[in-house]
Design a protein that fits this description.
The structure holds three protein chains of three kinds. By secondary structure, chain A is of the alpha+beta class. Chain A contains nine helices and twelve strands. Chain A has two domains: about 10-60 and about 105-240, Cupredoxins -  blue copper proteins (Immunoglobulin-like), CATH 2.60.40.420; about 250-335, Cupredoxins -  blue copper proteins (Immunoglobulin-like, Sandwich), CATH 2.60.40. Chain A has helices at about 5-15, 35-65, 85-120, 230-240, 250-260, 265, 300-310, 310-315, 325-335; strands at about 125-130, 135-140, 150, 155-160, 165-170, 175, 185, 195, 205-210, 220-225, 290, 295. By secondary structure, chain B is mainly alpha-helical. Chain B has a domain at about 60-150: Orthogonal Bundle (Cytochrome Bc1 Complex, Chain D, domain 2), CATH 1.10.760. Helices cover about 35% and strands about 0% of the residues of chain B. Chain B contains six helices and two strands. Chain B has helices spanning about 5-20, 60-65, 70-80, 85, 110-120, 135-145; strands spanning about 100-105, 175-180. Chain B has a two-stranded parallel ribbon. Chain C is mainly α. Chain C has a single domain, classed as Cytochrome C Oxidase, Chain A (Up-down Bundle). Chain C has helices at about 5-10, 15-35, 45-55, 60-65, 70-100, 110-145, 155-175, 200-230, 240-275, 285-320, 325-340, 355-370, 370-385, 395-415, 420-425, 430-460, 465-490, 505-535, 575-580, 620-630, 640-655, and strands at about 565-570, 585, 595-600, 605-610. In chain C, helix 6 packs antiparallel against helix 7, helix 6 crosses helix 10 and helix 7 (about 155-175) packs parallel to helix 20 (about 620-630). The chains are: A alpha+beta, B mainly alpha, C mainly alpha. Chains in contact: A-B, A-C, B-C. The interface between A and C is large, with 93 and 87 residues.
Chain lengths: ~350, ~180, ~675
Amino acid sequence: MTWRTISIAPILPLLVGACSYQHYQSDFGNGAVEDTQFLTLFWIFIAVCAVMYLLVIGFLFASIARRGRAEANVVEVGRHHWSHPLMRSTLMGWGALIGVGLTGLAIASFFTDRSMAKAATGEKLSVTLTGNQWWWDIVYNSADASKTVRTANELHLPVGMPTRIILHSSDVIHSFWVPSLAGKQDLIPGRENDITIVPRKIGIYRGQCAEYCGAQHAHMALVVVVDSYPDFLKWWQHQLQPAPMPTNPMAMAGYKYVTSGPCGACHHIGGTPASGLVAPDLTHLASRKSLAAGTLPMSEGNLYGWVEDAQSLKPGVKMPTLAMEPKQLHAVVAYLETLK
Amino acid sequence: MSSLFRASLLATAVAGIALAGCNREEHHSRAKPIGETVPAGESPDTIFPGSSSAPALDPRAALYDNNANAIAQGQQLYLQMNCVGCHSHGGGGMGPPLMDDEWRYGGRIDQIATTIAEGRPNGMPSWRGKLTEDQIWDLAAYVRSLSGLPSKDAVSSRAESMSAGTPQSLTPHGEIKNSDSAQQ
Amino acid sequence: MTDVRADSFDAMPAEERERIRVEEENRRLAQERKKIARDGPKLRGAKLEARLEATWRRPPGIIGWLATVDHKEIGRRYIITALLFLALGGVLALAMRLQLARPDSALIGAERYNQIFTMHGSTMMFLFAVPVMEGVGVYIIPLMLGTRSTAFPRLNAFSYFMYLFGGLLLWVAFVLNIGPDVGWFAYTPLSGPQFSPGKRADIWAQMITFTEVSALAAAVVLVCTILKARAPGMTLARMPLFAWAMLVQAVMIIFAMPAIALCSSMLISDRLIGTNFYNAAEHGDALLWQHLFWFFGHPEVYIIFIPATGFVSMITETFCRRPVFAHAVVVLALISTGILAFGLWVHHMFATGLPRVGYSFYTAASMSVSIPTGLQIFCWLATMWDGRPRFQVPMLYVVGFIITFVIGGLTGVMVAAVPLDLQLHDTYFVVAHFHYVLIGGAVFPLLGVLTYWYPKITGRMMSETLGKITFWLTFIGFHMTFFPMHWSGLLGMPRRVYTYPAGLGLEVPNLISSIGAFVLATAVLLFVLNGLFSLYRGAIATPNPWGASTLEWATSSPPPVYNFAHIPVVESDTPLWDVEGELPVVTGLRVDEKETLLTTVVAATPDVREPIPAASLWPFISAIAVGIVFIASIFSPWALAVGVIPCAIALTAWFWPKELKRHPEPVIS
């Protein structure tokens, strides 16, 4: 855990709450090669489309302006079936102009596609992302099985390197979208899709599921942390560590409840008997920046609220309301906070 | 057709749809945790101490039985908690089949919920403390649907997975026959 | 040939006997034929009109109301019902905007909000947009073509009832909180049996079946009317542009609707009896739904837009005092848009991971479909340039249409490019795009044309002042609501979210959109109030208050039940502008039976005299029978088997051959 990431964690809620947003989740974030190329193409399209629009509006306003003139080819003077021959040539010119404009735009689009595909070659890292109702299961693939990392709802990427993200879904169609980094790609059950991202700027970004996936689609976000390569490796190393055995008695009581009670039936905590695979991995829960797939910033208060009554915070979520007694709740949260 | 007649016909139709839909589609907010209203260790099957009539149906039954959302949740939990490991998709294996009409420990939803919560002799584990009451009742609602006991419009016809038998909406309506727990 | 003695008759050979029989029969029929009253030089004016009125009028009372086959009555019903659904869908939109006005709002919960946006989309697309176009078409087309009735008037009545029952099914379910919550396009597996428990998605899918049957029936009626029932002399080249637009739209409906009928039926089948069409684990495919849905869904938006281009053409012609420039180009543009629209659907699926090479084709196709529309826009602008535009309310809406729709078309060109679409798909940018093309491209012309044809339909004029205020409020309200959505989409706001977090810069655009929505709602309310008050207070309308050129203005406002006392003959594409005094007419149609004249498809030479059915309750009863089958089949597949019987009875009674009661016509042999 670097000082950098520790220091950002408490600042993030403040930043997110501030009025001046910083393109965490915006097409103008320019955080990766893909988004940069999108922006280039976007401005080309805006320019060409603006010119076309101004031509139409110019023609419209000119027609309105000249309505008061004496000469007009109207029924009142019996000339309603006549048109100036120049009008027909202008029509054809207009059609040709539209054709040329659209062809140019299509070619620009094609070239952008090609350069995005070229940038995506030579991936150095492969991640498997599985979409669930309403959280993201993330596995960092490695040839060495003992080096794979499983986490949830927070993706760490090394800057400057192509990362290939393989997309699966365990239930309905979701869509992986981090606007500041790249376009979206759907997660479709029964299909394997993939997207390659080459981040350019170190920072923290936010993505959201972009395909309606049920009740809490609005709260299926993920945090993407782009680090320098050495920082990224440090993070990976840390993720490989199992959860430490707690030392203080309150946390120990929490550990006992978590591993023998309902938590372990669904969640996995490395190094403990809790080995459920159907819910987010909690081994390094407290090191994440958000809770409940980007719904809440990570904080002690939010942990209390989520563990006690998830249904009030995110109604319909699969995590049940536990309604523990206060002593148990304190113990559980104390333990969860040790899972850094 | 007088307009009064038409209006009353419409009202009846609406009432019909309303009554049919009332509990089936309700999504009970689980924000209010359901407290323990049933004492542990309820009578396991058809032998009741004292009088010979069965105890009254738990009031929670109305919330979960014939509730489409509960059955759907139960279906997901059935797969996630690996009930399939012993009971397969209702056909049984190490555990008894759940899609037939023989119920060793009772086929009412509260009896099934007790079975899941307490465990039973011969290998059914106890899930009390591992699953919440709400999850257990969801599972009980789903298990009933494996043998065609809830009304057909509340069950889902199939899961989004490999076919595991007759679609549940086509399962013939089941009965509850209390069987001997010694039967294998 | 006088009487023949009985014995000598039997002694004759067979052919001779037959010849005498035929001659006697023909003589008897000739006598009968003299008794048939027909319109013509001998019967005209008030006497003719009284007799036509008596023949064409439907029975009074509730039975007559249910049994009517008058296209004007059915068209009015369609329009009023569709505007009611517009209001309901609009109220839902206001609810959504209230919820989204602030971040992390707790006004409307997730479940309710998901139902609301599903209902908003489904209501607007299936219960408002297509039916209102059908309704205006069904009302105006026979008048514009100079005929007395649509083809298949009972099928027309049936289509209205199917539409009404489908809309009632959906809305009653929503009010009872068993309505759908899967989005208006209901992607599988979310709408499948596992992830949408209960009957909500089935109700949505069956509403589709109702409205699709209704639209198909209306489309068949329109195609046959436009091709066969035109006034003599109205060749295809002289046919008004609105009739061309309705023809292209109706043919598109016939090709597009079956795809959604199929995929929604397959969804019901998956949910009801456990088939595996969309189940990947059993070799079905979740993407199959998307392909089939969008194969319908893309032409659907052109089905909505193309009649609106017809509206714009008619208004532009009338208010610029000249026919639309390059009539042939506009017709070809309509036809090519209709054809090209079927080759674009994969642009809704650019994020699904299909092969990129295939995507390039759809990018090119999606961009090229804007070429015919671009040419049409030039033609309308050229008409304004060359003519003398009068900016009364309908023409204001045309100007608003051009300003707004072209923006929508250009953002459409943007999302046609795959790299752009991968960022913009499923965000508020796309929401902005389609509202620009649907409201700008279809609702603005609709409001204009309702003002334009209001005098014809009701016999009164709408208030011009109130109309102008309504237009400006609509224009300002619309842009205030939807322009900021381009911005919120670019800032990362996905679609179909019931709330969004603070701090992403989404607060300001959403707040402006929400305020704009209320301005737009006020405008729509004003339009409705204008329509209602003008019914009682509006200036009485003459037959042709705008000085237009097409045939619907050649009859009174509102038209008599038989439309025209004599079928007019047409010699140009602007008949009322090119004829001095009375229009030439054909005579000879019966006045004691409902009868109209059919003409040939291209040259419109008179072809046959076609009897028109009398008012009949069987379309209504058939719609009830079919409706019960559809609704019951949500709950059990047996409904289809059992329900065939009452449907068969109703349809048999409907189609039972009827004979002319009096004075049968001789068969032409």
